[in-house]
Specification:
The chain contains 21 helices and 22 strands. The chain folds into 4 domains: 215 residues, Rossmann fold (3-Layer(aba) Sandwich), CATH 3.40.50; 130 residues, Rossmann fold; 170 residues, Rossmann fold; 54 residues, 2-Layer Sandwich (Alpha-Beta Plaits). The protein is 36% helix and 16% strand. Strand 2, helix 2 and strand 3 form a beta-alpha-beta unit. The protein is globular and about 80 Å long.
Length: 607
């Protein structure tokens, strides 16, 4: 059996390939991004792979392919599932023919997200099965199971890894790949593929019947299970206490229990929180007095157990988030699980077993040295000095424009909301100049409709598009403006400028943000007019271009005013002996500091 050392996302991607997937679509979002990238990298040409413009488009494309009998996978992060919710909710009623797996990676912490959503709730809401892997090895095998269940029950299924599964690594034993099945093709049947209220009503009844049946079926699923107590006979009180867990928390529980010697309580492992494996859970609780539940993020397993105790009149006390015995926010860890179990079992892990490490220094996120977004924000800030202006931001690298000293992001809600939030602010405070900042990738993903709304309703906003020629925040994926696809094809770039003009934006100016004089003038001009006016600040991300010759501070000229540091916040600059200093290993030669210096003390950049 072949083994490979894989990241969890790689294990999921390769697992899908080995399950015979035909089509993979998605939208980049940490922690899920590497799944689709792995499929693209390992693709022998038989799988169609694309970064779609957003999650809704990705899911609908996969649905169409699945209608024709193809096995499909869609990848996104938890907030992306919100964008895909409309088609997914309807698809739960319509069903699929080819197996369809929707990977929605949750981000407890949150580490790189704006919410701590628990996708298991979404699965319950959508009445769809959900698979929750506890390790990269399990994720590799479970994704194959997900396709099988999807096809057997003609339903999309949700696959829900969390960040610590996505980004952890393990040696994974690879199984023999399943050859791609022959695609039957789309068979016209409007009574199945065209959703009508009557059809939805009939299919809703079938959904409920199917999910009831799955409770029994999934109780025998290989990754759901009961682990009996070991050597608890000498502890009559402890032997009637059990642990219920699932996902990444199962790994933490096992690590804590490894320090308990042979004195191990019974464990219920739940890999499919919906439909909940009810018979298995009842068997687990039959001889118990107490159960402590450890899970991420919300008390999903805990609520199910409380419900079952009430339904079947079981005298079992359930402890967890609802009782305050387990923390109710943030990701779990070996340490937090050890503390929670200690409350019930009175067994504290030795400090040496907590892998105690010194605390890492605090490093607030900042825009990279040389990032063109810093120049864009600074130009707008300079142009609006002394004026009443509000700056609505968006999701991406440019969210970091909120940090001091720039302080240029007043609102940030979700992708594309900068444009529409600015419109709402304008309607309440028309005397303020409302700016919306959006990146090039987000413009295509979810910004266009908001701009159409602003033009249609004649709203006065200044649209700032930060075009750095890539999807920078998630790892530099292509988008419609880059002229590349995930299949490697070179295609025509979709022009942001032409799109804006076609929508009806009154003026569109493209300027290099590193030319501060021109940038400031463009902002002032746009802000003086009514209607929707756009400025495209166009300069590549430093990760996709070469550095320019570096800049240095002339010590004899520098007056130590700190303007370059106080106003820009570039991580390449610091003070030493009351003089500004540029760290050469960080400088990218952007020239912004030289343009800001009042005494022309910063030199360099010559070609």
């Amino acid at each position: 059996m072949n083994k490979r050392f894989l990241m969890g996302n790689e294990a999921i991607g390769i697992g899908a390939i080995h399950a015979g997937v035909h089509l993979v679509t998605g939208y980049p979002g940490t922690p899920s991004t590497e799944i689709l990238e792995t499929v693209a990298r390992e693709n022998d040409g038989s799988i169609y792979v694309e970064w779609s413009v957003n999650e809704k488009a990705a899911l609908e494309i996969a649905a169409g392919a699945s209608y024709a009998g193809a096995r499909t996978m869609v990848t996104m992060k938890q907030v992306g599932l919100n964008v895909a919710a409309d088609p997914l909710m309807s698809l739960a009623y319509v069903g699929v023919k080819g197996g369809m797996v929707v990977v929605a990676a949750d981000d407890p912490g949150p580490i790189s997200s704006q919410t701590e959503q628990d996708t298991r709730h979404f699965a319950q809401f959508a009445k769809l099965p959900v698979f929750d892997p506890s390790s990269p090895e399990e994720a590799y095998l479970m994704i194959r199971d997900a396709f099988e269940y999807s096809e057997q029950y003609h339903t999309p299924v949700i696959f829900r890894p969390v960040t610590r599964i996505n980004h952890s690594c393990a040696s994974v034993a690879l199984e023999k790949p399943i050859p791609q099945r022959k695609i039957e093709g789309f068979i016209k049947d409007s009574s199945k593929w065209v959703i009508f209220p009557r059809l939805s009503y009939q299919n809703h009844i079938l959904l409920e019947e199917r999910n009831e049946a799955l409770k029994e079926v999934l109780s025998s699923y290989r990754f759901n299970g009961l682990e009996p107590a070991k050597n608890m006979t000498g502890n009559p009180d402890r032997m009637r206490i059990g642990i219920a867990t699932g996902g990444a928390s199962y790994a933490y529980v096992k690590e804590v229990l490894s320090t308990y010697g042979e004195d191990i309580p019974p464990v219920l492992k739940v890999a499919t929180a919906h439909p909940f494996p009810e018979p298995l859970a009842l068997k687990f609780m039959k001889e118990l007095d107490k159960v402590i539940v450890l899970e991420e993020l919300d008390p999903v397993i805990e609520r199910e157990l409380v419900y079952l105790c009430g339904k079947h009149h079981l005298p079992v006390e359930i402890y967890g988030k609802l009782t305050g015995d387990v923390k109710n926010a943030g990701e779990n860890s070996v340490e937090s699980v050890g503390i929670s179990l200690a409350k019930i079992f009175g067994r504290v892990m030795p400090k040496t077993e907590l892998y105690s490490l010194p605390e890492l220094p605090v490093r607030p996120p900042v825009l990279c040295a040389g990032c063109p977004h810093r120049a864009s924000f600074y130009a707008v800030k300079t142009a609006m000095k002394g004026k009443k202006a509000v700056f609505s931001g968006d999701i991406g690298c440019y969210t970091l424009g909120n940090a001091k000293p720039l302080d240029m992001v007043d609102t940030c809600l979700c992708m594309g909301a900068d444009v529409t939030v600015a419109q709402g602010l304008h309607r309440v405070e028309p005397d303020a100049i409302n700016f919306s900042f959006i990146g090039d990738s987000t413009f295509f993903a979810s910004g266009i409709t908001g701009i159409v709304n602003a033009v249609y309703n004649e709203t006065d906003i200044v649209l700032i598009i930060l075009d750095n020629a890539t999807t920078a925040m998630t790892g530099h994926q292509p988008h419609p403006g880059t002229g590349k696809t995930m299949m490697g094809a070179i295609v025509d770039k979709i022009s942001i400028e032409k799109t804006l003009l076609a929508i009806g934006v009154k003026s569109v100016v493209t300027v290099d943000p590193l030319d501060q004089k021109a940038s400031v003038m463009a902002v002032k001009k746009a802000s003086e007019n009514t209607g929707v006016h756009a400025i495209i600040f166009k300069a590549p991300c430093i990760a996709v271009t070469s550095a320019s010759p570096l800049y240095t501070v002339q010590e004899d000229t520098c007056i130590g005013c700190m303007k370059c540091i106080r106003e820009l916040g570039c991580p390449a600059m610091h003070m030493d002996n009351k003089k500004s200093v540029i760290e050469p290993s960080l400088c990218f030669g952007c020239s912004l500091c030289a343009q800001v210096c009042p005494v022309d003390a910063i030199k360099g950049g010559e070609k």
